[in-house]
Specification:
Oligomer: single chain
Order of helices and strands: HEHHEEEEEEHHEEEEHH
CATH superfamily: Chloramphenicol acetyltransferase-like domain
Structural class: alpha+beta
CATH class: Alpha Beta
Length: 239
């Protein structure tokens, strides 16, 4: 006898033409995977100093809703200063080291995504960067961005926030040479100063274009990113 306590409605087979956004995403990602040989490196980061820093910065700037994302963008910009090859692009047989640090942030939409760009992220004070990022992400979600909001990115961050997976990989946005995928911050077993503890950690996955970036460059970037985020004085560096 069949169990009728949990009936399942049959799914419907449908055909839906690609939207303009999905067509653009398909072209971009296909071209990137076909032309840029990707490889990925991962690192786990103790996020307790970063969480403490965000709390301190919120107290210091109560009118600005500073979040972990804003701190991550700022720390990423500082890391790119130390590792400029990750902020470069390939033009034919020439590596172009970009003089600006313009960080794109992937914003998921119902049927696609937009990547608004925080221009001059390295030179912008964190409170201003937070306010600009809040505005950019809000307009992206409402699909109210301008062309200037989406142009001239030199590096991209994909962050799925609290509801995201532990780790994931992303496709590089050509002609950039790297993209950083940030998993959700969760309580995990972690060795801190030789002691096994349960700590809020994040797994960062760096995808790079092997034509521009080698393994040593990727490892150096991730180690610097980790060291900056694990600095107990993090709030004073960017406040």
């Amino acid at each position: 006898m069949s169990d009728q306590s949990n009936p399942v409605t049959p799914m419907e087979t449908r055909q839906v033409p690609l939207s303009k956004m999905r067509k653009a995403i398909a072209r971009m990602t296909t071209a990137s995977m076909q032309t840029a040989p990707h490889f990925y490196s991962q690192i786990e980061i103790d996020m307790l100093p970063a969480k403490n820093a965000v709390n301190q910065l919120r107290e210091r700037y109560p009118d600005i809703k500073i979040s972990l994302l804003h701190l991550l963008v700022k720390v990423c910009a500082a890391t790119l200063h130390a590792h400029p090859r990750l902020n470069a692009s390939l033009d034919g047989e020439t590596i172009v080291y970009n003089g600006e640090v313009n960080i794109g942030i992937v914003v998921a939409l119902e049927d696609g995504m937009l990547i608004p760009v925080v221009h001059a992220a390295d030179l912008t004070p964190l409170p201003e960067l937070a306010a600009r990022t809040i505005d950019l992400v809000d307009r992206a979600r409402r699909q109210r961005t301008t062309a200037d909001d989406l142009l001239n990115g030199t590096f991209t961050i994909s962050n799925m926030g609290k509801e995201g997976p532990d780790s994931f990989t992303s496709i590089i946005r050509s002609p950039q040479s790297a993209i950083l995928s940030l998993g959700t911050v969760s309580e995990r077993p972690f060795v801190r100063q030789g002691q096994l503890v349960v700590a809020p950690t994040m797994i960062a996955t760096l995808g790079v274009d092997h034509r521009v970036v080698d393994g040593a460059h990727a490892a150096g970037f991730l180690l610097t990113f980790k060291q900056l985020l694990e600095n107990p004085e993090l709030a004073t560096l960017y406040g």
